[in-house]
Amino acid sequence: MKIATYNVNGVNGRLPVLLRWLAEAQPDVVCLQELKAPQEKFPEEAIKDAGYNAIWHGQKSWNGVAILARGMEIKELQRGLPGDDDDIQSRYIEAMVNDVIIGGLYLPNGNPAPGPKFDYKLSWFERLQKHAARLVELDMPVILTGDFNVMPTEQDVYKPERWLDDALFRPETREAFQNLVAQGWTDAIRKLYPEETIYTFWDYFRNAYGRNAGLRIDHFLLNPKVSDKLKAAGVDKHVRGWEKTSDHAPVWIELK
Predict the structure, then answer these.
(1) Active-site residue numbers?
(2) Contacts from 167-172 at CB under 8 Å and sequence distance 24+?
(3) Is 7 annotated among the ligand-binding residues?
(4) Residue 22: which of 40, 38, 37, 43 has the closest Cα?
(5) For residue 34, which of 228, 248, 253, 252 has the smallest C-alpha distance?
(6) Which of 63, 178, 236, 250 has the fewest Cβ atoms surrounding its Cβ within 10 A?
């Protein structure tokens, strides 16, 4: 079973890129972030023509998350992250696919920090921790994946000294991620590649992709029931080099 996550940075504007990658990579399940489309504007027919069922939580202009499954039923379990009924941002969706619970998330960016956006990021992180604490204990496979907007360590960022005050790299953010993982989650990429330099995002500016000046902010967290089934993982970095592509590359894992 091949599961992928991809911040598409606009599902309609980047639809040709998404469809090209789906045809090439043929993942079984895909979590998408940053749809930037209201609920009624999601390209369901095009996705269906590519062989995928879909559920999605859209939002006009910003945010938005989706789960796609190739020829498999998607049973939606959760839409929106529990813990704040006033939070209207579309950042979390959870479903059962092929007896695996998959939570697709788009964690807030949080910049500028400090400030209200950073406070929202940390409060969202707290809610995620509370929800994840229940999921990690389940007696079935659970995967949390998506754009976490966190570089967990200096290993995960090009020239970390330039990012010290950024919301994605501030000590509070990294501590929140470490506390989440400490619940019993496995960082899939780091389990298989503990020492390698691996990035999942390259800015559009200053030839970041050409210089490989990237960040690792898209992650897979696996609960104990599925971590021992991990057999492969990677980043489809070349997709970042395609025309009119997202500033993220797809990230994937394969399970036994």
Answers:
(1) 106, 147, 248
(2) 167/109, 167/110, 167/111, 167/112, 167/113, 167/117, 167/118, 167/121, 168/109, 168/110, 168/111, 168/215, 168/217, 170/113, 170/118, 172/118, 172/122
(3) yes
(4) 43
(5) 248
(6) 178
State pTM to two decimals. 0.98
| Residues 38, 151 contacting (CB under 8 angstroms) | no
User: Would you identify the CATH topology of the domain 2-255?
Assistant: Deoxyribonuclease I; Chain A (3.60.10)
Identify the pLDDT of residue 23.
Answer: 98
- List the chain domain ranges: 2-255
34 among annotated binding-site residues: yes
The 10s digit of each residue's pLDDT in 191-221 is: 999 999 999 999 999 999 999 999 999 999 9
Q: Is 57 annotated as a binding residue?
A: no
Place of tokens 């993942």: 27
Tokens of 109: 């960016």
Cα separation, 130 vs 76, whole angstroms: 20
179 is in an annotated binding site: no
For residues 147-167, average pLDDT: 98
Residue type, 31: C
Of all helices (H) and strands (E), which one includes residue 57?
A: strand 52-57
Residue 99 is classified by DSSP as T
Q: Write out the H or E segment, with its range, that includes residue 208.
A: helix 208-211
Q: What is the mean pLDDT of residues 238-248?
A: 98
Which residue type is seen at 104?
A: G
b/e sequence 180-191, b meaning 16+ C-beta within 10 Å:
bbeebbbbbbbe
156 is in an annotated binding site: no
Residue 1: half-sphere exposure toward Cβ, Cα within 13 Å:
19
